[in-house]
Specification:
Layout (H helix, E strand, L loop, with lengths): L7 H10 E11 L26 E12 L6 E4 L4 E7 L2 E3 L1 H4 L4 E4 L5 E11 L6 E6 L6 E6 L21 E6 L5 E4 L3 E4 L2 E4 L12 E4 L2 E10 L5 E10 L9 H19 L8 E6 L6 E2 L4 E5 L10 H17 L7 E2 L6 H18 L5 H16 L15 H6 L4 H17 L1 H15 L3 E2 L1 H12 L3 H8 L7 E8 L5 E9 L10 E10 L5 E11 L3 E3 L11 E6 L6 E2 L3 H10 L6 H16 L5 H11 L6 H18 L5 H18 L5 H13 L3 H12 L11 H13 L5 H10 L3 H12 L4 H13 L5 H11 L5 H4 L2 H15 L2 H10 L8 H13 L5 H28 L1
Parallel strand pairs: 1-10, 16-17, 17-19, 20-21, 22-28
Antiparallel strand pairs: 1-2, 2-7, 3-6, 4-5, 4-7, 8-9, 9-14, 10-13, 11-14, 12-13, 15-16, 18-19, 22-23, 23-26, 24-25, 24-27
Helix pairs in contact: 3-4, 3-5, 4-5, 5-8, 6-8, 6-13, 8-9, 9-10, 13-15, 14-15, 15-17, 16-17, 17-19, 18-19, 19-21, 20-21, 21-23, 22-23, 23-26, 25-26, 26-28, 27-28
């Protein structure tokens, strides 16, 4: 039996044989409510009892053609049982043709009709049809999430992106519920019937059902030819979140995005309505289902958040909207070309964010935050070209990574600098019109870009899309006796493992200190860097700089390095750089030096302590806090951790008291203090802020901040289970439950850790969200000794976990429980021993372990660098 995986070769064979004319899918989800026979609870026993999963009826009719009559193929379905199967009017024996994941189809005709009546299982892992019971009011909510291949958990189909078809969905739900799908729906005779979709891939079909809070609006656009497009807009969330739902802002951003994409794509939005649902226990940031986009409900803010949080939400809304064209209208043929949707959506999300919304500094966040994800992924042993080699669905699942998203988007930003924005957008317009409702490969996009730009896209593609690794660019400066530049060159280097030197369109900026002390740019030149050394002739004769910034304005994708003089300037005057993008680029470059063990981690901590308080961009400040926390936990020498923690806590408290009362900077420093607090005085302050006996002017300790303060109090033994129970009573919601579960697992007790381990590893009773919360609480940097016994246990169980649990839970466990806090050569050796002994393990599992091993080895190198600096 092939199991749940599907190989690229199998998909290609099936696509060559079959073409799909349409689906009709009926789902009866009335079983979602009430007590099922034989069990209870969210996702408990099935309708037939016996301890199985809770199930719903799924009836699929699919019409398809076969290019070779008489041939055999298969349909995909993951379900506890199949009641009936018929092919072209012939009843087939379900026990003979269904093996749990596939339905064998033999002796196919030229034109075929397959009907499958199955009992499918509700999900607790966020894969397929997820069922959520709201602890606040007992209401039940359903939603689907399919990418890359989980629609087969809900209805029988041909689960691969290039077998597109129109879909008609019908849903019978409890009387008091409303159901939604990709198309407009109406209720008739107790059944929700939805308009037929355009031809789309299985993984972007969707169903929602439940007592969702639903708000409506509309968008109208009149085009140059006089035609008008009307798009009904909707936004929804759980009833419990309705008081916090700022749907007006969601609709504002939605309309701004639709205007932007209509202005630039010259292809009207093709999918009718545009609903956006914020759903519980979601594994992703969002999903681009046409006509009904789904988001994680954490984008509805229960407490005060910074503008960086609103910017992030806006970026995600625009990212998913870009997918309506890049991904939904035109879809990659197979997951090798996942970048054709994700890289473009990531780039267009940032582009439209800056051009169409209030977040005009979005490229600063992109340079500092998004690219950090890419730089890390591109230096792992699992790095891959942007166009990846995706052998099967497990590969595909893991390739939703920093390379496919952020590096791909960075490469496209470089491409825009290379061909010009108008040539790039004209290429996109031709691409949509040429391949609407079809599937494409890399060459299809490159051909239109060659047409519009006149550039050789094949050589560009080989360098940027078909090779892996990140280059570093370093300035080399020669000065005359009277202080003028006599030569300035950019030195390009690559890692031995990925030696490709790429063409880069870069800006080189020269900065110097003004009489007032500010570091400001006084000269700039753009140059095409190609090869190991490129001279920037335009800057020869300029006055000597205090700082040379390669990749000024962030045009290319590279690691920035500094000459000695520039690095000395940053150590003394980083906070004086006036341009926020240039400052963000310098911070990012210094973090890369730290990760690469070229700068002691305690030096980076010192820079944060001295200059983070002057950072105006709140997103950059939050990133600096995250990096400082990583440096403290993983990169500083072990004997300096306590001192570093004390210094960071003192610095956080100082900046918290200095911050403008009620400002987002004050809130950000308060959250950072909670992340690094460990001393008795700091913990007493947090407890006082919780109890109201301490006060910091302007700091509103709302419910979300209360939970943030409770985690360090719990992990250091100040708050106990009784305190957490009282807090949950105060916030008896789904969000409160996740916070409580995380804090419970954070308690400093061997018994607590054993219980948390068992709940995640030995049981599948927890939902995906509570698995995530438990792992987060279990892994505490201050509890290395308590966690030490679990290093050996980890290696003993991960292969079983990967085999027995869903891929999402498997990824969460294998990544989240890797013993990274046991940062010693012995743990590295234990990892190598497991890898050697498990060469035949699933490639995706080995990839996850290899990535964690690389992070551990990097941490040990950084600790050695930091320790050497102290001697």
């Amino acid at each position: 039996m092939p199991g749940e995986n599907l190989s690229r070769d199998e998909a290609r064979e099936r696509a060559a044989l079959l073409s799909v004319d349409g689906y009709e899918v009926f789902l009866d989800v009335r079983s979602a409510v009430g007590e099922p026979e034989g069990g209870s609870g969210n996702g408990g026993s099935g309708n037939g009892g016996g301890g199985g999963p809770r199930t719903f009826r799924s009836v699929t009719t699919v019409r398809f053609r076969c290019a070779e009559p008489g041939a055999a193929s298969f349909a995909d379905l993951i379900a506890p049982s199949v009641t009936a199967v018929s092919l072209n009017g012939r009843d087939l024996d379900p026990g003979a043709v269904f093996d749990g994941t596939r339905i064998l189809l033999e002796d196919l005709a030229a034109d075929n009709e397959l009907v499958v009546d199955a009992q499918c299982a509700y999900s607790r892992t966020g894969e397929g049809l997820h069922r959520f019971v709201d602890p606040e009011d007992g209401e039940i909510y359903l939603y689907t999430q399919y990418e890359p291949a989980d629609s087969r958990r809900v209805f029988a189909n041909f689960e691969q992106p290039d077998l597109k078809a129109p879909f008609r969905f019908e849903v019978r739900a409890p009387e008091e519920w409303v159901a939604w799908s990709n198309g407009v729906g109406e209720l008739s005779d107790g059944v929700w019937r939805f308009a037929e979709t355009k031809p789309i891939s299985t993984y972007i079909t969707t169903i929602l059902a439940g007592p969702y809070h639903y708000v409506t609006d509309s968008y109208s656009r009149t085009f140059a030819d006089g035609t008008t497009l009307e798009i009904p807009l909707g936004a929804m969330c759980r009833k419990g979140l309705a008081p916090y739902f700022d749907s007006d802002d969601v609709f504002l951003v939605t309309k701004q995005g639709l205007d932007f994409f209509h202005d630039h794509f010259d292809y009207p939005y093709p999918f009718g309505k545009y609903d956006q649902a914020f759903v519980p226990e979601y594994n992703l940031g969002a999903m681009e289902n046409p006509g009904l986009v789904t988001f994680r409900e954490e984008f509805i803010f229960r407490g005060k958040v910074t503008q960086a949080a609103y910017e992030r939400r806006t970026n995600v809304i625009l990212h998913e909207m870009a997918h309506m064209w890049f991904g939904d209208l035109v879809t990659m043929e197979w997951w090798d070309d996942l970048w054709l949707k994700e890289s473009f959506a990531d780039f267009m999300g940032a582009f439209s964010l800056v051009e169409a919304t209030r977040f005009t500094n979005g490229w600063v966040t992109f340079a500092n935050n998004r690219k950090a994800w890419a730089y890390r992924a591109d230096q792992l042993p699992s790095t891959h070209p942007v166009t990846a080699d995706i052998r099967d669905l497990e590969d595909a699942k893991l390739n939703f990574d920093g390379i496919t998203y952020a590096k791909g988007a960075s490469v496209l930003k470089q491409l825009v600098a290379y061909v010009g924005p108008e040539a790039f957008l004209e290429g996109a317009r031709r691409y949509f019109k040429r391949h609407a409702y079809g599937n494409t490969r890399l060459g299809d996009l490159l051909s239109v870009l060659e047409e519009t730009s006149g550039r050789d896209m094949a050589s560009w593609s080989r360098a940027w899309l078909q090779t892996a690794g990140v280059n570093s660019l370093t300035p080399a400066v020669l000065l005359s006796a009277d202080g003028l530049i006599t030569e300035l060159a950019v030195i390009q280097e690559a890692a031995e493992s990925h030696p490709e030197l790429r063409p880069h369109r870069v800006a080189v900026g020269l900065y110097r200190r003004s009489p007032g002390g500010e570091l400001e740019r006084y000269a700039r030149a753009e140059v095409d860097v190609d090869g190991p050394r490129t001279v920037v002739g335009e800057l020869v004769g300029s006055e000597a700089p205090d700082l040379v910034l390669v990749n000024d304005d962030d045009l290319t994708y590279c690691k920035i390095r500094f000459d000695e003089g520039s690095l000395a300037t940053l150590r003394a005057h980083l906070g004086e750089i006036t341009d926020p993008l240039a400052r963000a680029l310098c911070w990012s470059a210094l973090w890369n030096l730290t990760r690469d063990a070229l700068m002691p981690a305690r030096d980076f901590v010192d820079l944060v302590l001295r200059f983070a308080g002057r950072e105006s961009d709140i997103g950059v400040l939050q990133m600096l806090h995250a990096w400082a926390g990583t440096a403290l936990t993983h990169y500083v020498a072990p004997d300096w951790r306590a001192a570093g923690e004390r210094l960071l806590a003192e610095g956080a408290l100082k900046e918290l008291r200095l911050a403008e009362p009620g400002s987002q900077h004050q809130l950000t420093w308060a959250r950072f203090l909670s992340a690094v607090a460990s001393s008795e005085a700091d913990l007493q302050l947090l407890q006082g802020l919780l109890e109201g006996t301490a006060k910091i002017d302007g700091l509103d300790v709302d419910q979300e901040l209360r939970w943030a303060f409770l985690e360090p109090l719990t992990s250091h033994g100040v708050a106990d289970e009784k305190t957490l129970a009282a807090e949950l009573a105060r916030d008896d919601t789904a969000s409160g439950k996740r916070h409580q579960v995380r804090c419970l697992a954070a308690r400093p007790s061997a018994a607590v850790k054993a219980q948390a381990w068992a709940q995640v590893v030995e049981s599948d009773a927890l939902s995906n969200a509570l698995v995530e919360a438990t792992i987060s609480g279990f892994v505490q940097g201050s509890q290395r000794e308590l966690l030490a016994p679990y290093a050996d246990k980890y290696f003993a169980v991960i292969e079983r976990i990967w085999a027995d649990r869903s891929i999402q839970i498997g990824m969460d466990v294998v990544r989240g429980l890797f013993p990274s806090l046991q940062d010693s050569p012995e743990t590295l050796a234990a990892t190598d021993t497991w890898l050697t002994a498990h060469e035949a393990a699933a490639p995706a599992l080995r990839r996850l372990v290899l990535e964690s091993r690389d992070d551990l080895a990097r941490a040990l190198r950084a600790q050695a660098c930091d320790g050497a600096a102290a001697r």
